[in-house]
Amino acid sequence: MRVAMGWRAIALAAAVVSISTEAMGQGRPIRPGAPVVTPTPVSDADLSRPETRLSTGLRWIALEVPDFPPGASIAVVHGDPNVNGRDYIVRIRFPAGYRFPVQWHEESEHITVLQGSFLFAIGDEADDTVLQRYGPGDFIFIPAQAAHFGGARLATVIQVHGTGPFRMNLGVAPGR
Questions:
Q1: b/e string for 132-152 if b means 16 or more Cβ within 10 A?
Q2: Global pTM?
Q3: pLDDT, tens digit (0-9, with 9 covering 90-100), for 11-31
């Protein structure tokens, strides 16, 4: 079993964070957490091999992010979100009624709702009146540096995929 130190902190939308100095001045960066045991990290050789993973084999851990309420959990499906230029896929489970604060990422995200009722909006300030509801099969694309917020009406699972590194900041992106 390997510890993937690429997973230094896990955050929504979410996962691991290594914040650049440029990003440190805006919002509040999420601090690294304890190492997380993940599937074997992806190597260059792995990119040419098919990969399968049963949902029953995912390892769910608590999503512990400063300023996020407790109760959400995350699992790595594929890749390592902290490796620059590599694809990754994570799943995030939210309990009913969960809300996450305004945040932004340096890279774009692709979100698919797998189950439940995901609440989401683009915006610089959290405002429950503008949240849209997304159900199983619905898709959301979030461009790089787009501030967003949301949560879950019911117990919900989303799948997030993109190209690493997956970096997350609380607040609004600089220059937007």
A1: eebeeebebebeebbbbbbbb
A2: 0.74
A3: 333 333 332 323 222 333 334
